[in-house]
Amino acid sequence: MAIPHASAGQTIDVQPLGERLAAAKTVALFKAQDLEVMRLVLLAGRSLPPHQVAGEITILCIEGVLDIALDGRRHVLGAGQLLFLAGGAVHGVTAIEDASALVSIALKR
Amino acid sequence: MAIPHASAGQTIDVQPLGERLAAAKTVALFKAQDLEVMRLVLLAGRSLPPHQVAGEITILCIEGVLDIALDGRRHVLGAGQLLFLAGGAVHGVTAIEDASALVSIALKR
Q1: What's the pLDDT score for residue A1?
Q2: Which of A84, A100, A104 to mutate to test the interface with B (most CBs of B within 10 A)?
Q3: How much is the pLDDT for A3?
Q4: DSSP assignment letter at B15
Q5: In terms of Cα–Cα distance, which of B6, B47, B8 is closest to A86?
Q6: Are A60 and B102 within 8 A, CB to CB?
């Protein structure tokens, strides 16, 4: 279930969705003062076109396989693999297999 | 293997350590401008006494069970559960079972 803006001290489940993945959507988990965290859901073959955000990002693949295009290179992330992106880094994301990922963004104020 | 300061665009494995957990140590994964990320390793019965850091924190339990004491309440985190802590929140951590967790800290400049 989506928790649009969890409060501090609230436990959030980010286990693999498994069979529920195919019907799931990307959800914001919380947005605080300095950190924003979401679960990205991307089904096989779907992409986020190249984009950038001001703050630093970590992408932790929870399940499935993601291909992150960054600086002219491709980074393939399987479950339990983390990628760090510098602030402003242009990156595209393509799901090789149905995937979900925990995306954490350092907010710029 | 520890990666003291991974560079941007480097994939970092944060899968469960499993049988390697008992001999593992807490390691810094990277420290960037706005984000610091480490893998905390805490064996059953061990604790980090109550402490605080300036920045906001997320604790994602990778394996095992952690008990986080925060604001007079206990939060039990199993694998795949995430807890958000506000900046400056005093918190203690005790491992109920051998555990590792991904700890992300928003750095204050």
Answers
A1: 40
A2: A84
A3: 44
A4: S
A5: B8
A6: yes
DSSP-assigned states of every residue in A37-81: EEEEEE-TT-EEEEE--SS-EEEEEEEEEEEEEETTEEEEE-TTE
Closest-CA distance, A12 to chain B, in angstroms, reads 5
Nearest CA to B45 among B59, B66, B63? B66
* Cβ within 8 Å, pair B8-A82: no
Q: What is the pLDDT of residues A14-26, one digit of tens each?
A: 999 999 999 999 9
Read off the amino acid at residue A8. Answer: A
User: How far off is chain A from B52, nearest CA to CA, in Å?
Assistant: 14
- pLDDT, tens only, B41-71: 999 999 999 999 999 999 999 999 999 999 8
ipTM score of complex: 0.91
Q: Is the dihedral of CA B66, A55, A74, A94 positive or negative?
A: positive
R_g (Cα) of chain B, nearest Å: 13
Q: Which amino acid is at A15?
A: Q
- Among A76-85, B1-10, B38-47, which is the least confidently predicted range? B1-10
